[in-house]
Specification:
Chain A has one domain. In chain A, 19% of the residues lie in helices and 38% in strands. Chain A has four helices and 14 strands. In chain A, strands 3, 4, 5, 6, 8, 9, 10, 11 and 13 form a nine-stranded mixed beta sheet that branches. In chain A, strand 9 and strand 10 form a beta hairpin. Chain A is globular. By secondary structure, chain B is mainly alpha-helical. Chain B folds into two domains: 143 residues, Cytochrome c-like domain (Cytochrome Bc1 Complex, Chain D, domain 2), CATH 1.10.760; 138 residues, Cytochrome Bc1 Complex, Chain D, domain 2 (Orthogonal Bundle). Chain B has a two-stranded antiparallel sheet.
């Protein structure tokens, strides 16, 4: 008899556990216009100008869900290194059994973390997202080639970072969302390239005004996929 | 009787163990300020310090496996590169700066002559990656370490994990560097009232306090700030120091104030190693200071020192030599 009760209790607990674990997922989907981003594709800005992307990596940190501007969930794993060409890294699990209307996150790494020494996981400096000559995380990295960049091998490299005033390039993003099983956040590179001129601007490798301006263009390219 | 003996032996062993564990890996010398390094995030253990020491002396950290940290930071010269104005790295490539002496690093908030590095843990990344220094990537260093049976074992012992990460590699190097504390010079003994200055050293100390201590503040003998000390720009290097990092004109020609501890052994002096002797340095401060907009407030008035003053001041500076630091076998090349 008592065994049966224990068994029933366990089933009940398991149910509760499963319920509390029910989750939806926030998925970053990088694109070039309406096309899904891939490393092998050639994209066209116009008839003659083409772009290939070799690397798109960025940090999403301190994710938070809000309801009526009140925090209802804070990500217990605050740092995610998103790599456009590594499917596994694109999704972040969030709970679905709570109601929320807004998503908040940082694009990049906050200043406190930047001055806190060596860290592991996605923050490990072996991930290639840390400046070695001047301490600080690279918040956002976009690399590729284009016939417009008159550089060696037509390369362009945008490494955006900087955590110190007046060159803090961290961007805080607020997006209105409705809860569903997969919330897709589109990052459209076409929108970024339409706002810059690769003939004149093809390298950003240090903190400064340029990195800050470019970071703003990056968050403007984010939208919720309907 | 036998019982008494065995109790005695046990007691003796316990006492021995106590003696061994009693000597801390790091301690704050009496009346020194609190260190800025957050030890709670990287608590020192003997195994981690030993691992860090092995890494510090291992040329595996460089691209061609020829240059170690110790190549430019030799223990016998207060962990700097003696005899070279500018330090050289792999394939005899020459850098643009004089390697700084390493000691009392737990008290530093920033590193490098221009403060480019914001945390001791991240410091090693700079020389590892610089093409003129070790020319390597931390990713490759970790790979090379992972392939070494010896290091797998050392990391397992130190971190409880034989999978080597960048984080653990850097933290281990920090651990060794944190133990490099120099606080046992004659000056320190005098401050602890265990020794006395000679009249000459005492006079030198008074001259030091009046003319030098604003920047080379006791007990670290640096105020840890960035100052323009009136050096003329070397047009072969055009190094404007701190300004490169902050992009702020008011930081032009400012460099981090180096410690004077063990100055007897850490020549040549200045960020570009332009002065080979203490006498040349004193000549600069008394007659060579170039005035510019960013010149340190402490050097606005001319420094006037007689030749006797200079001799006495030098006698004082030599009291900052700490032989127990320079020749400490704990800091030397690790035994295999």
């Amino acid at each position: 008899m008592s065994k049966r009760i224990v068994y029933m209790m366990m089933c009940l607990l398991k149910g509760v556990f499963l319920f509390s674990q029910s989750a939806s997922c926030i998925k970053f989907s990088p694109s070039f216009g309406s096309e899904k981003l891939s490393a092998d594709s050639v994209y066209y800005l116009n008839v003659s100008d083409s772009i290939q992307i070799t690397s798109l990596r960025f940090y999403v940190s301190n994710m938070e869900l809000l309801d009526n501007n009140k925090s209802v969930w804070i990500d217990s794993n605050p740092f995610h290194l998103i790599d456009a060409f590594n499917e596994k890294t694109l999704s972040v699990i969030v709970p679905s059994n709570i109601s929320y209307s807004k998503l908040k996150f940082n694009l990049g790494i906050d200043s406190t973390t930047n001055v806190s020494g060596a860290m592991g996981g996605d923050l490990d400096p072996t991930k290639g997202m840390y400046w070695t000559w001047q301490s600080g995380y690279i918040n956002f990295k976009l690399e590729g080639t284009s016939n417009i960049s008159k550089t060696r091998h037509n390369e362009f490299q945008f490494h955006l970072g900087g955590y110190q005033h007046p060159f803090n390039s961290l961007q805080t993003v607020f997006i209105e969302i409705t809860s569903k099983s997969t919330i897709e956040i589109n990052i459209d590179l076409l929108q970024i390239f339409q706002q810059i001129n690769l003939a004149q601007q093809h390298h950003i490798m240090s903190p400064g005004q340029e990195a800050m301006d470019f970071s703003e263009k990056v968050i403007q390219s984010l939208s919720i996929k309907k | 009787m036998r019982k008494v003996w065995s109790i005695g032996i046990v007691l003796f062993l316990v006492l021995c163990a106590f003696q061994i564990t009693k000597e801390p890996l790091f301690s704050v010398p009496t009346s020194w300020p609190k260190p800025v390094y957050d030890f709670s995030k990287n608590p020192l253990t003997a195994q981690k310090v030993e691992l860090g020491r092995a890494l510090f002396y291992d040329p595996l950290l460089s691209k061609n496996n020829q240059i170690s940290c110790a190549s430019c930071h030799s223990p016998f010269t207060a962990f700097t590169h003696v005899d070279h104005d500018l330090s050289h790295g792999i394939e005899d490539r020459i850098g643009t700066r004089n390697s700084p002496a390493l000691m009392n690093l737990a008290w530093h908030q920033s590193f490098m002559w221009d403060g480019a590095i914001n945390h001791l843990d991240m410091q090693a990344l700079a020389p590892i990656s610089h093409p003129n220094e070790m020319g390597e990537k931390i990713e490759s260093v970790v790979k090379k370490l992972q392939q070494s049976k010896n290091y797998s074992a050392l990391f397992l012992k130190a971190f409880g994990d034989s999978i080597i990460t960048g984080e653990h590699t850097l933290k281990a190097i920090s651990q060794f560097m944190l133990t490099l504390v120099s606080s046992n010079s004659k000056y320190d003994s005098v401050m602890r009232k265990q020794a006395q200055f000679t009249p000459q050293q005492k006079n030198g100390y008074t001259i030091f306090q009046k003319n030098c201590a604003a920047c080379h503040a006791e007990p670290l003998f640096t105020n840890l700030q960035f100052e323009n000390n009136g050096l003329a720009v070397d047009t072969t290097l055009n190094d404007y120091g701190r300004m490169r990092i902050t992009k702020n004109k008011s930081d032009s020609l400012k460099f981090k104030v180096p410690t004077l501890r063990n100055i007897e052994f850490s020549f040549p002096y200045m960020h570009d190693g332009r002065f080979k002797t203490i006498a040349a340095v004193l000549k600069h401060y008394t007659s060579g200071v170039k005035h510019s907009q960013t010149l340190s407030v402490h050097l606005q008035k001319p420094m006037i020192l007689s030749s006797n003053d200079k001799v006495d001041l030098t006698a004082f500076l030599l009291t900052l030599t700490d032989k127990s630091f320079l020749f400490n076998t704990k800091y030397g090349f690790p035994k295999k």
